[in-house]
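Per reviewer request, we include the raw input and output of the structure prediction for the construct analysed in the revised manuscript.
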Amino acid sequence: RSMARVHPRILALDSLRIFLLEAGNDRLPLLILHGFASSALAWTGIIEALGTDRRVVAYDRPGFGLTVTTAPQWKGLDPYAPDSQVLIALELLERLGIHRCVVLGHSMGGRLAYELAAARSERVAGLILIAPAWERPSAPWLARLLRRRAIGLVGRALLRTTSPLALRLGQRLAWASSPPRDIADGGVVAVSIPGWEERLWRVTCATLATPKTPLPALPRPIPTLMILGERDRIVPNALTRELTAVWRVRGAPLQVVTFERSGHLPHLEETSRFVETVKTLLEEVEDGATPPR
């Protein structure tokens, strides 16, 4: 099977230095939004497979991977806060010259993809939500406590010493079966990037400081594909199934596909099936036909 060549680069958005991966060109582009404690690099294989006949872009959100900030604020906003992420994604799309695309989001990136569609539905031709995590943790009182200098110093030190083990354990929980050794070792690479603990600490505090808000309504029907892992131990599927039942009653053009052998990472656990499922949705969106399934 042919694979696209993936091009990494850094794109400056004012005080942000966004690390992104790109492949392909032409046709309707696909934007990939990774989940918590992940990176665009985790999607390299998917980008290679899908970038053979269209443009595919994935980037590291502030707080993760190789994206860095050069100032405490971005356009007057906390670049690590959940409320800033839609604006950052839109700014990135503008700089890349992408005016309309399909947006794929995994886990917490799934909620961001949905929020992007709710904010600017004319820019989103379709949604692909992979094991979406709809509920963000929120505890403003805890965020205030963690932001105290002494507690912050201790917290960062704990991150440095415990994160490699925690990431390995997280990988084992995320996979329905034992993850391949190279995947399991990827967590160690993630915490070897200079300054990672500061960025992770800041995104954690910013997330906890954000009050819980209900999901906004989509201003228009948007073709949506949900891919769930039947054996997901990270994000239970119950809430997604409740939401999809309501959206279907409202006539949403929605497809739900369950991967029986997968946990929280169906794109890694059943890659071939995942790629073919996503390709089908992309072609249906381009053809203007997305029957519910």
